[in-house]
Amino acid sequence: MSLESQLGDFLYSYEKLIVLGVGNVLKCDDGVGPFIIKKLKDEGIETKKIMFIDAETVPENFTGKIKKEKPSHLIIVDACLMDRQPGEIKIVNKHDFANIGISTHSMSLSFFVRYLEKDGDYRIIFVGIEPESMDYADKPTCVVENAAYEFIDTLKGIL
């Protein structure tokens, strides 16, 4: 199933969407989540129905904001180690978080999701992008940046 059809199916009849970018902007491809959020904000498509949050490496700091906004849908975007080709995008169901490697966060994303769901009814997916490099650098590699733009263009086309 293509990225477009998976995102389209997920976002069908959304009422309020939050896209949460997670990652360390000082570690090359690990910063792809915040990179995507910055580019989406630059597009000027944020509305009362669509919100973008750059959570950096501390998504747990935004649980209050997410709960206050009461989104119907939440997309979490981050670099993750999935044994795939660099730049490959995979949509991971919230129940499959345990099968992917995420090492830069103080709170696991599966715990983060369970905490959010305790007080709210959200549809949640995780968009993982396989990193090429996690070395110190202030921007993603070309292959991961291209994947970021593919995700951005696909999301904009659906919204």
UniProtKB/TrEMBL annotation:
UniProt EC number: 3.4.23.51
Check the record and name the CDD domains matching this protein. Answer: H2MP_MemB-H2evol (cd06067)
Checking Pfam families in the record gives: HycI (PF01750)
What is a GO molecular function of this protein? aspartic-type endopeptidase activity
Q: Which biological process annotations from GO are given for this protein?
A: protein processing
The main enzyme category here is hydrolase
> Which InterPro entries does the annotation name?
Pept_A31_hyd_mat_HycI, Pept_HybD-like_dom_sf, Peptidase_A31
- Please give the superkingdom of this protein's source: Archaea
Q: Which UniProt keywords apply?
A: Aspartyl protease, Hydrolase, Protease
Under the heading PANTHER family, the entry gives: HYDROGENASE 1 MATURATION PROTEASE, HYDROGENASE 2 MATURATION PROTEASE
Give the family this protein belongs to, as stated in its UniProt record: Belongs to the peptidase A31 family.
User: What protein name does the entry list?
Assistant: Hydrogenase 3 maturation protease
Q: Which organism is it from?
A: Methanobrevibacter oralis
